[in-house]
## 1
Amino acid sequence: MHSLVYRSVAVENFELPDIYKMLSDARLFNSRHNITGCLLFHDNQFLQLLEGEEKEVERLFRRIKKDSRHHKLEIICEERSSIRLFDEWSMAFHDYGLNGTSANLKLNQIDRFFEKSDAFMKPSTLAIPFFANVKDILFDPL
């Protein structure tokens, strides 16, 4: 099992319909290639965690790096693991809306979202840096 977390910045003209189309395509691809993960999109920033067989994750990440819908791609961390943080989701996602949400609502949604995954109950070095970046994207705008 291989896990990878990256973040990037969407191009200026990237809009909500684009994210839903991308998400639909990703879920189909991921289910066919046994890839799970989580995608956060807020304030024109992406944060994504990908999990699966190393060959499949690396192949997908090569495609992601070539995608012209984003730039400033930065790998946060990678690890080999025997478990998945998001084992039941081909791609978890939550829409915070175009105008954002209050800090309390954001925190409550994140808590509910990640309680479902039991991410902090699983032995992984990815959970802390992933959630630290979630906080940065949600509360520290570009």
## 2
Amino acid sequence: MSASLPRPLRHLALSALLAASLSAAANGHAGEVGTSPWGPGDEIGRLNLITPESRAAILSRVDGRRAYDLATDYYIGMPSWQGAGDPHYQFWMTHTPRGTAVDDPMGVGDPLNASTSYTGTAFSMYSHTGTHIDALNHFGLHGRIWNGFSADEHLGDRGWRKAGIEKFPNLIARGVLIDVAAAKGVEMLADQYRITRADLQAALAKQKVKLQRGDVVLIRTGRMRLFDQPDAYMANPPGMSLDAARYLVEDGGAMVVGADNLSFETFPSQEPDAYVPLHTYLLAEQGVPIIELIALDELSRDKVYEFAFIGGPLKIRGGDAAPLRPIALPLK
């Protein structure tokens, strides 16, 4: 589909993601959610790989002279899932210096209002907006999420009582950039390009980097160059294939995966023989959180492929995702 089509086309990505799960069930594919090796109470999956020892190991290698901000800005009209019916980013003034002087909402009187020039704002948005990380309750199978927690038992009107985003620890780990776009010699992968296992292997070989168990692995498609063009950014994004994700998790030992697009995977979201969308495989089966809309172009520019990844989501109780402000610190 063309990026110039009306906004309703933006609903197709999430719709395709959900339809893949329904189609899988209808065709008799019976995937099961993963059982945690960390015990029946585990709610954070592979984030258990973060230990005092692993944190100390990566932080001992940090070169603190440079820090890379991997988060996007939030702005009205930014790329979002509003075509799927989800709330888009809204920002509005609740107090302005002149308005406060007129209304005197705190009853402090004209002299103080005039001198303080008070400003206040509010904002609202869908939880999967801007740079964010998905919790393990975001996608499941047959009414259950990671580690077998069921919606019937653990999902209330105030969110999940299990596997909420507030359970995530501080994310301090080795980060690895796999710059697929640069390895292919392009600024940005083509629309709907499906990244393969071979693409990842070729990029890692070119970068002379090897994956390690417990890595935060970030994939660059180059899509972030369209971030200020929301319709173009959202339309027909390139993304990961299921086989490529299996390589990262099952062969490479990735703890967290992420990319600079809004969906991580591309659409249609599955290969013909796949029984679940990629989100379900990662979150529900493998216990691997997903970061989306992460800004990787500066790391690519400076050829920084290995770094200390530091960040943390907002602690939204029962939430299925939250904004993330990650930074990358190059290593000595």
## 3
Amino acid sequence: MAEVVPEEARKVVDALNRVEEIEDPVARAVAVSQVLKDFKERAPQLREMQRVAIDLLRAQDVSYRQIAAQLGMSLGAVQNIERGHGSAWGTKPRKKPVTE
């Protein structure tokens, strides 16, 4: 089955591709910096949108595996988001403080 990408997501990917194609390395780096800054600011909102969808599907007794397939995410990411963690291991709260 072919993956269906919403139009809005396709536009974002296309824009990122255009940033990568900027020939001038300095101009490309400036564009990349802006993209990364904006993403960092939006990441919590984006993760919350995923969590809302996961919670909605879990309330309908949809399995974790089905949710992962439907949202195009890994099974572990779905479970982590439902637990209140980000989708990456690095966003989990530490149980013990890190000592240096």
